[in-house]
């Protein structure tokens, strides 16, 4: 959104994208859910080949109940991270996956709306990313965790050339840079001001799927943490002079082909749009034009961003529990 949202009481120039062989991503040039679907039974991770490898405004937090990530890893029932709504840390599942053979790398790409209303969420990410990293490293997984970053308003930019950050401190520094950027009301590539409230989640997610240097699917949990507080346009729309490059279907297909799970922090309280009174949940918590919401379509989940901003949901706990619940689970998109 192009202006700051009211406080509540109390996360186009697109780089070349790549397929599993390192070639260009198929398709054209370079949004949670009423139920969280996803990883079904415990397995050795998804199969597939290796892929090579930046604003809007709104907020609600619990991915809703369902199969897959809603259950504790390695079991068909048990701890459900998506029913935790309090502000307390909820890391009960950490340290054990229920399967001694479960050894997966973790790749996480943050796809962040950096429009003016997103400053508080980005500040929280900067404050909590070290906690996220420390908890992930406490899991019984392969030692290295790779992070990436895509930022967007109406245009989109992948940071660090699509390569993983050298360390979490470098990622933290970039969160600081981009929350300061939100105060400029500019496009990420410097192409002018942000004059409308829909932002470009579609191209940003497509970029995250295709331009980050993901590691091999059979050995890696691939996850996008997507943060935005408003709706989006798709191919054919022009937002603040920026033409959207991809359709909803193209973006979902790109995510599914690479077995990337999307966990979205988005608005589920009808507090989007220029008057802070519009329902912008479609594509995140509810179907978009009759099509499955992106988190559900990618075996992920959705959280109400407003609960995070109101300190009713721990951002770091939500991210960490989503990772723990997805490890070594089959990728079963809808």
What do we call the CATH homologous superfamily?
von Willebrand factor, type A domain
Helical run tally = 7
| CATH fold type | Rossmann fold
CATH first level: which class? Alpha Beta
Output the helix-strand order: EHEEHHEEEHEHEHH
**Helical percentage:** 10-25%
Distance between the termini: 30 Å
The coarse overall form would be globular
Summarize the structure.
The chain has one domain (68-77, 101-326): 3-Layer(aba) Sandwich (Rossmann fold), CATH 3.40.50.410.
Question: How would you portray this structure in words?
Answer:
The chain has 334 residues and is an alpha/beta fold. The protein has a single domain (68-77, 101-326), classed as Rossmann fold. Helices cover 22% and strands 13% of the residues. The chain contains seven helices and eight strands, in the order E-H-E-E-H-H-E-E-E-H-E-H-E-H-H. The protein has helices spanning 119-137, 168-181, 201-211, 248-257, 294-297, 305-309, 315-326; strands spanning 105-113, 145-152, 156-158, 220-227, 238-239, 242-243, 261-266, 301-304. Helix 1 (119-137) runs antiparallel to helix 2 and helix 3 (201-211) runs parallel beside helix 4. It is globular. Residues 2-98 have low confidence and may be disordered.
Write the layout of secondary structure elements.
Layout: E1 105-113, H1 119-137, E2 145-152, E3 156-158, H2 168-181, H3 201-211, E4 220-227, E5 238-239, E6 242-243, H4 248-257, E7 261-266, H5 294-297, E8 301-304, H6 305-309, H7 315-326
Parallel strand pairs: 1-2, 1-4, 4-7, 7-8
Antiparallel strand pairs: 2-3, 5-6
Helix pairs in contact: 1-2, 1-7, 3-4
């Amino acid at each position: 959104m192009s202006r700051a949202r009211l406080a509540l009481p109390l996360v186009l120039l697109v780089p070349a994208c790549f397929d599993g062989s390192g070639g260009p991503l198929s398709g054209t040039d370079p949004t949670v859910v009423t139920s969280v679907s996803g990883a079904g039974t415990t397995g050795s991770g998804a199969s597939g080949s290796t892929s090579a490898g930046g604003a809007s405004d709104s907020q609600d937090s619990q991915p809703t109940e369902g199969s897959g990530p809603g259950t504790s890893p390695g079991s068909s029932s048990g701890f459900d991270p998506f029913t935790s709504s309090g502000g307390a840390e909820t890391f009960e599942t950490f340290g054990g996956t229920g399967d001694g053979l479960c050894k997966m790398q973790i790749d996480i790409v943050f796809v962040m709306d950096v429009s003016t209303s997103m400053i508080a969420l980005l500040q929280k990410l900067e404050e909590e990313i070290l906690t996220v990293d420390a908890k992930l490293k406490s899991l019984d997984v392969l030692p290295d965790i790779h992070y990436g970053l895509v930022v967007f308003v109406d245009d989109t930019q992948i940071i660090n050339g699509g390569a993983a950050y050298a360390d979490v401190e470098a990622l933290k520094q970039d969160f600081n840079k981009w929350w300061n950027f939100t105060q400029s009301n500019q496009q990420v590539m410097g192409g002018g001001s942000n004059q409308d409230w829909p932002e470009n989640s579609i191209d940003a997610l497509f970029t995250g799927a295709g331009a980050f240097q993901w590691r091999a699917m059979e050995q890696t949990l691939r996850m996008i943490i997507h943060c935005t507080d408003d709706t989006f346009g798709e191919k054919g729309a022009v937002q603040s002079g920026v033409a959207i490059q991809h359709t909803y279907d193209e973006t979902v297909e790109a995510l599914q082909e690479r077995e990337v799970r999307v966990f979205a922090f988005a608005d589920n309280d009808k507090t989007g749009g220029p008057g802070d009174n519009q329902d912008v949940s479609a594509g995140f918590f509810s179907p978009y034009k009759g099509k499955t919401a992106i988190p559900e379509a990618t075996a992920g989940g959705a959280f109400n961003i407003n609960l995070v901003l109101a300190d009713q949901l721990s951002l770091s706990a939500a991210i960490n529990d989503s990772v723990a619940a997805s490890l070594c689970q089959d990728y079963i998109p809808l």
